[in-house]
Each structure stands twice: as structure tokens, then as C-alpha cells.
Write a structure and sequence with these properties.
By secondary structure, the chain is α+β, with helices and mostly antiparallel strands. The chain has a domain at 283-370. It is built from 17 helices and 14 strands. It has helices at 12-22, 33-40, 48-56, 66-73, 94-102, 110-116, 123-133, 141-148, 158-162, 170-174, 205-220, 225-234, 240-250, 271-276, 291-294, 306-313, 348-361, and strands spanning 8-10, 43-44, 77-80, 86-89, 139-140, 178-184, 187-192, 254-259, 262-267, 283-285, 317-321, 324-332, 335-340, 367-370. The strands form four sheets. A five-stranded mixed beta sheet has the order 10-11-12-13-14. Helix 11 (205-220) packs across helix 13. The longest helix is centred in the middle third of the chain and has 16 residues, at 205-220. It is globular.
Length: 378
């Protein structure tokens, strides 16, 4: 990887301030729901309330239910993506992430072939059968299973669908055949992706890889090579050799930056903006598993101090100051309880102000309750 001398030096406080702006957190942006999702690359949807809050807190004006409406309108898609979990992606850019996830061709592993009795050469017809089943619109998983298993070739999969088929259906998303549709009577549905006019399809792998790296650096930079491997390698199983090749191939488009002694990278077009950024003391209340924390990973001590890491991995709601996790918040009855975990003086006025903003997103009528400062354990 590139070992050139850094072209610019910045502090971590500058770097995080620039990243906050790119995340539409300081200041909040005027992007649409789809614009926020596209900017972040992916929004986890294990908990729909957290996914919606992740989007709403990045917008100056929003209403409840707009993320669900965006899915119904096709301006966002919802698929199995990072770490096998469900995420909202952009239909224009999401195919790049799915291409990386599909690169490992997991469905061709001997264990898969033995268990599902689908050989690699069977998958093109299986995928076509799934798309045909979804031709007339979204189906629940049970309905999809009933339709498929009427065919002799897939009758043996009935017990798999009866058990939920949670693993079998993931490659159908990775290969661009289907994603989640709007829920029906509280049950998940699945729909074809190629009927969405905004869906750009699955690009060639060697197009997808560099595009995904550029997107990551544009929102989560300055980032180290390890950050890229965490996001696209650990997250999507893109493969270390492939990632290193794509990084090398970007050449002069990547610029090494000295961030308080750490060599990180940004896109060349972002160097001047990064260098001109001034630190911020902005306080933000974020939902659990927000991409601000998950994007660089909870091991990144510049964002998540070690004393806070376990809380973040357990999906606690972070309170950040200047981009650094300094505490947590929780809704308890009619109160937003803030636990301040940083040794620095608690910024009560800023916490009250941001707490009021969060309360308005959650429906109002909530009072902010601040606990006494405590020094994190070492």
C-alpha cells in the first residue's frame, strides 16, 4: 500500500469535525431520506426505530415514517448486506456493496451444496424461479416458499422455507434478485429489485470495489487501510487481496494524510476541505449501532474510547462530543436520561439543547435528566 509522505497534517479533532459534516451531523443537512442513506452507504435496520432515528437526526426537517415511505417508493432498498444483516441501501449505489458481498460465492461451498441440494449450476434457474414468483408483486417468505416448492426441482426445500430460509435467501439479495418489500400485516415481504426504475443493478466486481472504497473515504475519511478492510473486508467479505489491489489501483486519487501521527487517506478532491476544517464541540445524541460508530468500528479509540466500547457493541445509544463517544442516553418514561462518562466537564447547556432536539424527534414531552459525571473505568 501507499507509503508516500503525507501531503497534509491535521489533528483528530479536525478530522472528526470534517467527518461530522460528511455524516450530516454537524450541521444537520437538508438531504432527503434517500440522500442520507446514500451518503452513509448503509443504514442498519435490525431495529426499525433506530434506523429511522439515524436518518432523522441527520435532517433539519423530518417526519415519522418517512424511511418506510422511501422503501415503498423505491428511493431506498432494504437487503441483506454487511455482516449478513439487513440494511437500507441506495438503489443507485447499493449494487456495488452487493457485488462485493457476492464475490465469495458462498452458495457454492460444499456445505451449502450438500445441505440445500443446489449445485452451482442449479442457481441460475433457481434465481429465475424466484424472480418469476415475485413477478406480480411482493410475497411473504411463506408465500414465496409455497410458490417455489410447487415445482418439482425445489420441492425438497419446503422444510427449509418452513424453518425460515434465513440463510438460503441471502444470496438472492447479494446477486440482485430480490430485497425486502413493505411489511404486510406485520410480516416481512420480498420484492424484485429489477422492477425499481432507480435500481442500477450489480456492477462488475472491479468497478464495484474501487467505487465502494471511494464512497467510504468520502464519508468516513480520513481512514486507514485497516478501516477499509474492516468496512469492506470484515463487513462484506470482499477479500484482503482484492481490497489491496483496488486501493493500489486508485493511485494518486488517494492522498495520505498525517492525523496526529497516524497515516490515513482521503480522496484528492477532499484534501483542501479537510485541511480547512476547524474543530467543533458539537454534541449529538445518536441511536444505538449508528454508522458514526459502526463505520470506523468500535475498536477505533478516536471515536469510541475503550471504556465505552462494550456499551457501543451492546447497542447503547451514544452521546458524542466533537465526534467522540462521551456517554449514553436512554428513554425512560417521560425522561431522556443522559449518563456522562467522560472525565471532562459535562457540557450541560449543549446536552440540554441536543436533548430537546432529540425529544422533538421522539414525539416531544420528554425532559432531559443528566446524571453526575463519572470517570470511565480504566
Amino acid at each position: 500500500m501507499d507509503v508516500r509522505r503525507a501531503e497534509v497534517s491535521v489533528s483528530w479533532s479536525q478530522a472528526l469535525a470534517w467527518r461530522l459534516e460528511r455524516h450530516l451531523l454537524a450541521p444537520a443537512g437538508s438531504e432527503s431520506v434517500a440522500g442520507v442513506v446514500r451518503r452513509l452507504g448503509a443504514v442498519p435496520s435490525m431495529d426499525e426505530s433506530l434506523a429511522e432515528l439515524a436518518v432523522r437526526t441527520r435532517r433539519t426537517s423530518s417526519r415519522p415514517g418517512e424511511l418506510a415511505k422511501a422503501l415503498a417508493a423505491g428511493t431506498v432498498i432494504k437487503v441483506f448486506a454487511f455482516r449478513g444483516a439487513v440494511h437500507y441501501l441506495s438503489p443507485e449505489d447499493g449494487g456495488a456493496y452487493l457485488a462485493l458481498r457476492a464475490a465469495g460465492r458462498q452458495w457454492e461451498l460444499p456445505s451449502w451444496v450438500d445441505y440445500y441440494r443446489l449445485a452451482p449450476e442449479d442457481w441460475p434457474d433457481f434465481r429465475a424461479a424466484v424472480r418469476d414468483a415475485l413477478h406480480d408483486g411482493p410475497l411473504t417468505l411463506a408465500e414465496l416458499g409455497d410458490t417455489l416448492t410447487r415445482q418439482a426441482a425445489y420441492r425438497h426445500l419446503k422444510p427449509v422455507f418452513d424453518d425460515g430460509a434465513g440463510t438460503l435467501i441471502k444470496p438472492l439479495a447479494w446477486q440482485g434478485d430480490m430485497g425486502f418489500g413493505p411489511p404486510r400485516d406485520g410480516r416481512a415481504t420480498f420484492q424484485r429489485l429489477d422492477t425499481n426504475p432507480r435500481w442500477a443493478g450489480i456492477p462488475d466486481l472491479d468497478v464495484a470495489g474501487p467505487a465502494a472504497i471511494r464512497a467510504y473515504l468520502g464519508t468516513y475519511g480520513p481512514a486507514t487501510v485497516d478501516h477499509v478492510h474492516y468496512w469492506l473486508g470484515s463487513g462484506l467479505s470482499a477479500g484482503r487481496k482484492r481490497l489491496n489491489g483496488w486501493l493500489h489501483g486508485l493511485g494518486d486519487r488517494l492522498v495520505p494524510v498525517d492525523v496526529d501521527g497516524t497515516v490515513a487517506h482521503v480522496l484528492r478532491e477532499d484534501v483542501d476541505g479537510l485541511a480547512a476544517t476547524r474543530p467543533t464541540d458539537a454534541v449529538r445524541f445518536l441511536p444505538g449501532h449508528d454508522q458514526w460508530v459502526i463505520g470506523p468500528g468500535t475498536k477505533d479509540a478516536h471515536v469510541t474510547p475503550p471504556a465505552c466500547r462494550e456499551l457501543m457493541t451492546r447497542k447503547a445509544n451514544p452521546v458524542t462530543r466533537a465526534g467522540v463517544v462521551c456517554g449514553t442516553w436512554a428513554r425512560r418514561g417521560d425522561a431522556l436520561t443522559v449518563s456522562w462518562l467522560d472525565a471532562a466537564k459535562r457540557p450541560d447547556a449543549a446536552l440540554e439543547e441536543e436533548g430537546d432536539r432529540l425529544a422533538s424527534l421522539l414525539g416531544g414531552g420528554l425532559r432531559v435528566r443528566l446524571t453526575s459525571p463519572t470517570r470511565p473505568a480504566t
